[in-house]
Write a structure and sequence with these properties.
Length: 420
């Protein structure tokens, strides 16, 4: 049995010893709309699956007789000693999973000494999350809106609340096509709010219903005229329907505002760096060496190799497969993080061995939240922390910085094994 890491109070839950089991427990706790929204990928979901399966292509070469009695799983981020090289990725609308939503996640992260990313489309305010996080440094994920004023206000609030960085999501110039979300006519229940935009511009955010053809059906209780104007707004920028788009106007909903097809390296990164200083500016959603070099060229502070958990471009490369070329291109000039498909402590080890400085997890935290709120998120983090610690020890490493490609081999489809 793995002994709990220092300072971590969580005890084992005998009904839930793996992230796979956590996923199963969570599935029965969520309503269908939420489960589908959280769990699905874009289109056929092949990239979502490949993100996970990519980890099985690598095996660990363990070293022995190395006195591993003093394992240190911690990793430095924004000057903070995180308990392991892993953070909680920004995921939208966490109050769908549990009434305490992002606040429960923040409290769990504080308990487990793990950094948290907050989505622009959170259902809790960024100030309340910062307060619940205590001394843990946080990151605000940004969808940079075409209406700059909304973004400007959000950035100013994040600065004031002590956020250390903004992560600009760059893989969402258009929203990916999530068929279950469309079929379910996903909408935020009326008692929940996209919390970080003013009341007046947020007023009908909860009433958004998309049908995938670019039109929205009339939400229950919503007046006909409101529904009609909502339809007009969404038809141009929701799930892409081939129609000519118009810049969004009116209430901020994720269907109208998350996607911003106008984003570009030249104009927007410089603007954001100026606006966000002294917070760091990272880009989340890099998948190629070419874009990694552009990120360095435009002086961003860090990169997250990500395909949005397979929710944007289906058919894109698994993030673990994209990681080596990005890490090689960056050559240590700025930190390179990765997310997508991390479901076990050995996955963290493999990602680090392939050049990542740090990994982030999305869905496993949502499953923890759905299972038992704050306690469930702590459990999720505890499982991964214990597995990672055990992996380090059994592989013969005691320091995160020592994990490198010498610890891995790659196994191809025919079973041929190659050193990296
Ligand atoms: C339900 C859900 C909502 C998400 N919301 C956001 C978001 O608001 N902003 C963002 O940049 N990424 C978002 N992501 C992507 C995550 O930040 C992360 O890239 C992804 O979940 C990692 O893959 P994993 O779920 O396999 O760990 C979301 C992912 C999920 C599953
Ligand atoms: C607000 C949404 C666009 C959140 C998101 O990024 C997602 O659902 O993947």
């Amino acid at each position: 049995m793995v002994s709990p890491s220092k300072g971590q109070k969580q005890t084992l839950d005998l009904n839930c010893l793996t992230i796979k089991e956590l996923e199963k427990h969570a599935a029965v706790m969520m309503d269908k709309q939420t489960r589908d929204y959280y769990n699905e990928g874009a289109d056929s979901g092949s990239t979502l699956l490949e993100n996970i399966e990519a980890y099985a292509k690598y095996r660990i070469r363990p070293r022995v007789l190395r006195d591993i009695s003093q394992i240190d799983t911690s990793a430095s981020i924004f000057g903070f000693r995180n308990s392991l090289p892993l953070g909680v990725a920004p995921t939208a609308m966490q109050c769908l999973a549990h009434q305490d939503g992002e606040i429960a996640t923040a409290r769990a992260c504080k308990e487990m000494r793990v950094i948290m990313g907050l989505s622009s489309f959170a259902t809790s305010t960024l100030e309340a999350v910062a307060e619940a996080s205590g001394d843990i440094p946080n990151v605000l994920q940004l969808y940079l809106f075409e209406e700059r004023d909304h973004s400007r206000k959000l950035i100013a609030r994040a600065k004031k609340a002590g956020y250390k960085a903004v992560f600009l999501t760059v893989d969402t110039p258009m929203l990916g096509r999530r068929n279950l979300e469309i079929r379910n006519q996903f909408k935020l229940p009326r008692h929940l709010k996209i919390a970080n935009f003013d009341e007046d511009i947020n007023s009908d955010a909860s009433a958004t219903v998309m049908d995938g053809t670019g039109s929205s059906s009339e939400p229950q209780g919503q007046k006909k005229s409101e529904a009609a104007s909502s339809t007009r707004r969404q038809s141009s920028v929701g799930y892409h329907d081939g129609e000519k788009r118009h810049p969004p106007s009116g209430p901020i909903t994720f269907h109208t505002h998350a996607a911003n097809p106008t984003l570009s390296w030249e104009r927007d990164i410089a603007w954001l760096k100026k606006e966000a200083a002294p917070m760091e500016v990272w880009v989340k959603g890099i998948a190629t060496a070419e874009d990694a070099l552009l990120a360095v060229h435009h002086s961003v502070d860090g990169i997250v190799v990500s395909n949005h958990g397979g929710r944007q471009l289906n058919g894109a490369l698994a993030t673990l497969d994209a990681l080596p070329e990005v890490a090689a291109a960056v050559g240590g000039k700025i930190p390179v993080h990765v997310d997508g498909g991390v479901r076990h402590g050995t996955d963290i080890f493999k990602a680090l061995a392939l050049g990542a400085d740090f990994v982030w997890i999305g869905r496993p935290v949502l499953w923890g939240l759905a299972y038992k709120g704050q306690q469930g998120v702590e459990l999720c983090l505890k499982l991964l922390a214990d597995e990672f610690r055990l992996c380090m020890g059994l592989a013969g490493t005691i320091k995160v910085e020592d994990i490198n490609k010498d610890y891995l081999v790659k196994v191809d489809k025919s079973g041929f094994i190659s050193r990296l």
